């Protein structure tokens, strides 16, 4: 009796302690939650002053939602209230000199509520405690590495987790058939050798165990036990020509020696529980020899059917080599021959989880798919065709007639001067970039298709159409050939690099000139005094001025200099000039890899070409025709980039810079043009800066004339000589910088 009383007291105390512990834990979690809400409200009170305002109110028989809504309106607090708060009623409450923040904490504690914060918006709703996380049960498996023994305590544990744990602790590879994926295992063992333990695990859970030569443990379910079938004979997999490595990804290890394709497909489909449909008997697929480790079932089928059709394909490719530039009729005949020769090839198609087997000419095996290019254009674009040079020659045929009302077109009877100017203009154009011949011709070439680069083995047995609007191929053919074509498209569908070329043309010109001296003599006629005295002195004195200066010396005793002749003159020069000119041009141009780009910016002017025609012999009349021919001066850039696999860029680049000098050999002659041209092929890394070319010109001139001996005496030499000192330096550099974008 006493023992029973003590046992009851012990159980009662344990229950009380457990209840107290749970209560204490819940109370601690709730206090932590309330403290978190207080901290958030305290931080938010800086942005919402209403949380710190005081509340003085007495209420009774009011729903909690109406009370909180009134508080939010009075203190301008953004509150959203759950509909469940309408069922909570405040019977009688009084709050005096209580802050809104403390009032909200009281309501949360009293009615088990929670507050969610979104900016300055407070959402109040009933508190839902977090669900208890139930720890997932791990199978109890221990392995002693010293004795290679296994201990288990399995109680209806899932087979996949048990096998994974055994493989992790022991290093033994365990495989199982797909029908065992949902099976649960029960077994208790203590320090049993691994091989024995695995056999007992299979026997006690109605499984069959086979140990392969390469050390794998293969488990399979024993069929027929549930329906009382006792005639089951275990398949001897020791001599099997394939092994299932991964049932989920359908990975196999095969060793086929002239084996039947039909038997292999049927056995694997049975083991992997595959859905198959045969449009033609699988026996027609023949035999195959394949050895592979860890190959997927889909890849194995592709290799098997490729090997069976290899002889036919090789013969067909030898007898039907066709140039891609042949006519459409020849291509159609070649396609018909290919279809006839490949129609008897055995193949397969996979749709979802169903495998279809048959010959390529059967509709069940055929597949139509839209394959879209993701990074490249389906059309092989030609080089950009420039729209003509600056000041296009569209005005070259406009003639203006003088001396009459008739309008005459360009005639071939122009005079010699016209031919000279025409030839001169053509020479200037030819010195530029020859875009009208090379670039223009490529731009006018019809754009091809990327299918022109496809190997014949990729398009064999397929009907391919091009949809330029969707940048896609519409492909029809057997499933394996369509997949092969699709993989090839993915292989070549890569982004085409975009190259930006920055060209910096830097032209610097510096000059310094000093010119001094005195020159006097007798001219052909009297000279008038004129010139500049400041800041540069360049004065010419006439005879009258000089005589007045000489007359100013009268009165110095017996000194009498007399007068100069009327045509006498004197030049006085003291000049110094400096110049510093810097011109920077930075044209930029982008193009795709392997395509030519052209940029031009310039000016067009015109010069007159006049031709005269005389009509009639007895009463001749003269007709004068004036043609205005254009001539261009431009800054032109043309380049064609090639980006290699290592990121280096090969550039074929040409730069021309020309401008009008402002001079003409005659009034109506073409203007003179200063031209600079740089043409080069170079190789460089992206973002590198390189000098394409440069021109540097230095001029130094120190000349003078004067009276012998006197012109070399210091100080007074400036009165008996005339000197000119000139120093100039001109530099032109062309710098390029390529940038590649993908």
Structure summary:
The chain is of the alpha+beta class and 742 residues long. The chain contains 14 helices and 34 strands.
Alpha-carbon distance between the termini?
90 Å
- Average the pLDDT over all residues and give the rounded result: 75
Overall structural domain count: 6
Report the biggest beta sheet as strand number plus sense, adding barrel if it closes.
Answer: 7 strands, antiparallel
Number of helices: 14
- Write down the overall geometry: extended
Number of strands: 34
Question: What portion of the residues fall into strands of 2 or more residues?
Answer: 35-45%
Overall helicity: 25-40%
Radius of gyration of CA atoms, rounded to a whole number: 51 Å
Judged by helices, strands and strand pairing, the structural class is alpha+beta
Low-confidence stretches are: 17-25, 226-239, 311-342, 388-446
Q: How would you summarize the topology of this molecule?
A:
Elements: H1 2-44, E1 54-63, H2 64-75, E2 78-81, E3 89-99, H3 100-111, E4 113-118, E5 121-126, E6 140-144, E7 149-158, H4 159-170, E8 174-176, E9 184-193, H5 194-204, E10 207-211, E11 217-221, E12 242-246, E13 251-260, H6 261-272, E14 275-278, E15 287-296, H7 297-308, H8 310-319, H9 328-342, E16 346-351, E17 354-359, E18 366-372, E19 379-380, E20 399-402, H10 416-430, H11 435-444, E21 448-449, H12 456-459, E22 463-467, E23 472-478, H13 479-492, E24 498-522, E25 530-532, E26 537-541, H14 543-551, E27 568-585, E28 588-592, E29 597-615, E30 621-643, E31 648-664, E32 671-685, E33 690-706, E34 721-741
Helix pairs in contact: 1-3
């Amino acid at each position: 009796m006493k023992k029973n009383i003590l046992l009851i007291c012990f159980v009662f105390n344990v229950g009380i302690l457990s209840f107290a512990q749970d209560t204490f834990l819940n109370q601690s979690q709730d206090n932590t939650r309330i403290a978190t809400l207080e901290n958030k409200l305290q931080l938010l009170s800086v942005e919402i002053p209403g949380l710190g305002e005081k509340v003085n109110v007495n209420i009774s028989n009011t729903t909690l939602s109406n009370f909180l809504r009134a508080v939010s309106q009075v203190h301008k607090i953004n509150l959203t209230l759950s509909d469940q708060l309408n069922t909570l009623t405040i019977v009688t409450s009084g709050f005096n000199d209580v802050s809104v923040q403390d009032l909200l904490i009281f309501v949360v504690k009293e009615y088990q509520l929670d507050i969610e914060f979104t900016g300055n918006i407070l959402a109040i709703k009933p508190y839902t405690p977090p669900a208890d996380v139930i720890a997932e049960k791990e199978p109890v498996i221990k392995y002693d590495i010293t004795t290679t023994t296994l201990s288990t305590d399995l109680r209806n544990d899932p087979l996949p987790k048990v096998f994974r744990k055994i493989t992790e602790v022991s290093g033994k590879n365990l495989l199982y058939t797909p029908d065992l994926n949902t099976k649960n295992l029960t077994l208790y063992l203590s320090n049993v050798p691994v091989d024995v333990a695995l056999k007992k695990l299979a026997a006690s859970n109605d499984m069959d165990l086979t140990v392969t030569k390469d050390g794998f443990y293969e488990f399979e379910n024993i069929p027929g036990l549930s329906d009382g079938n006792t005639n089951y004979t275990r398949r001897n997999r020791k001599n099997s020509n394939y092994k299932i490595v991964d049932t989920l990804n359908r990975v196999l290890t095969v060793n086929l020696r002239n084996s039947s394709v039909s038997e292999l497909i049927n056995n694997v489909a049975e083991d992997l529980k595959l859905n198959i449909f045969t449009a033609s008997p699988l026996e027609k697929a023949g035999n195959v020899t394949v050895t592979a480790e860890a190959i997927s079932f889909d890849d194995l089928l592709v290799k098997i059917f490729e090997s069976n059709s290899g002889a036919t394909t090789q013969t067909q490719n030898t007898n039907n080599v066709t140039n891609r530039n042949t006519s459409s009729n020849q291509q159609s005949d070649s396609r018909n021959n290919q279809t006839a020769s490949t129609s008897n090839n055995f193949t397969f198609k996979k749709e979802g989880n169903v495998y279809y087997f048959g010959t390529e000419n059967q509709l069940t095996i055929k597949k139509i798919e839209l394959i879209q290019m993701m990074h490249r254009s389906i059309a092989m674009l030609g080089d950009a065709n420039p729209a003509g040079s600056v000041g296009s020659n569209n005005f070259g045929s406009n003639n203006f007639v003088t001396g009459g009302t008739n309008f005459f077109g360009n005639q071939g009877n122009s005079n010699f001067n016209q031919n000279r100017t025409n030839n001169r203009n053509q020479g200037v154009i030819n010195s530029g970039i020859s875009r009208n011949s090379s670039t223009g011709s490529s731009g006018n070439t019809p754009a091809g298709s990327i299918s022109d680069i496809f190997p014949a083995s990729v398009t064999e047995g397929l009907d391919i159409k091009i949809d330029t609007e969707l940048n896609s191929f519409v492909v029809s053919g057997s499933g394996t050939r369509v997949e092969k074509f699709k993989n090839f498209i993915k292989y070549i569908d890569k982004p085409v690099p975009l190259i930006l070329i920055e060209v910096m043309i830097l032209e610097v010109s510096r000059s310094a000139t000093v010119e001094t001296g005195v020159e006097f003599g007798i001219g052909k006629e009297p000279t008038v005094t004129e010139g500049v005295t400041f800041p540069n002195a360049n004065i010419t004195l006439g005879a009258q001025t000089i005589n007045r200066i000489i007359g100013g010396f009268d009165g110095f005793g017996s000194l009498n200099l007399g007068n100069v002749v009327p045509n006498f003159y004197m030049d006085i020069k003291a000049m110094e000039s400096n110049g510093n000119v810097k011109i920077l041009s930075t044209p930029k141009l982008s193009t795709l890899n392997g395509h030519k780009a052209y940029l031009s910016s310039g000016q067009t002017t015109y010069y007159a070409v006049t031709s005269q025609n005389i009509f009639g012999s007895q009463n001749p009349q003269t007709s004068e025709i004036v043609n205005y021919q254009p001539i261009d001066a431009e800054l032109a850039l043309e380049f064609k980039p090639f980006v290699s696999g290592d990121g280096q860029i090969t550039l074929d680049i040409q730069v021309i810079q020309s401008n009008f000098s402002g001079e003409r050999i005659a009034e109506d002659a073409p203007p003179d043009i200063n031209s600079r041209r740089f043409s080069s092929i170079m190789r460089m890394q992206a973002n590198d800066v390189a000098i394409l070319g440069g021109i540097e010109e230095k001029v130094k001139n120190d000349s003078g004339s004067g009276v012998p001996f006197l012109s070399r005496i210091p100080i007074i030499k400036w009165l008996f000589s005339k000197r000119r000192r000139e120093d100039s330096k001109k530099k032109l550099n062309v710098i390029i910088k390529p940038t590649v974008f993908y």
